[in-house]
Amino acid sequence: MRLAVVSDIHGNLPALEAVLADIERQQVDKLIIAGDMVGCPQPQATLESLRDQGALMIRGNHENYYLNCDRGRTPKGNGNSKQWEAVQWAYEQLDRDALDFLNALPEQRVIACNGAAPIRVVHGSPSSDREHLFPDRNPAALTRFRQEELLPTDQTPSPLSHVTEAIAEAVLICGHSHIPWQQMEDGCLVVNPGSAGLSINGDPRATYAILTWTGDRWSAEHRFIPYDVGQLRRTYETTGCLADGGAFARACLLASESGHNIAQRLILHTYRAAAAQGIDTSAGIPDENWDAAVAGFDWAQAMRAGVPDDRL
User: Fold this and answer.
1) Containing domain of residue 244, as a range?
2) Are residues 185 and 297 in the same domain?
3) For residue range 230-248, what is the model confidence (pLDDT) as tens digits?
4) Deepest of 23, 91, 118, 197, by most Cβ within 10 A of its Cβ?
């Protein structure tokens, strides 16, 4: 039994197509998607491709943002602000059938097949689609989390055992961080397949994982797949996503091109700038403060090890 596990595609169809081509060569039995498949610049086409594959999917936090838009609310209830232009743009590309399909998806699921030990699939953690799980006994992976500003340098992550001891399954699949890792904890194999569309592992290649059931246990292999990043930029431009999706769309494109967390750095910068001015950000960042913060964001510094300067 072989399962392909993919997460965090974020509407990057060129990356997904390259991953699906590799998956076909690997002759897997099922395709599992751990959320955040929809996003800029091709949300509708990406979802249609996964549905054509018969993939087993769950919703991620971004799918919930689009569903909030559909319910007449903006992603986190903070008004129709520039902070969420990219999400609003992607939502407007989804048709009624796609939105209804997303709404019907579970936020987590347990998969059991052909006598193999069951697998729990979540997006962030079993308790929240926006919570990061950390491989607490993997120093190299934790260094990457800190480099990409997902884990403060002075913070020690909670033990992964606190999560695994609360579930019964032999494998826990999680996404959300866009950083690939795996760790065996108390007999439970925890696997983050990384991102198949917006990698922040210092490597712009699309990443996914293959689970293999051999004898009486699961093992995991991460695969790194090159794709045409130039085609992705052209698609951002021709669809209007880059022009209409605001600074966050630009940050996501640059993240895909560089393999670094430009989007997170942009958001942290805007919130820090607002906090320095005493702005209440509990409902998001007001447009005038967002514009001022974006104008002061050092794009080149944020991705110094990324793409050539002519892409900035």
Assistant:
1) 234-311
2) no
3) 999 999 999 999 999 999 9
4) 197
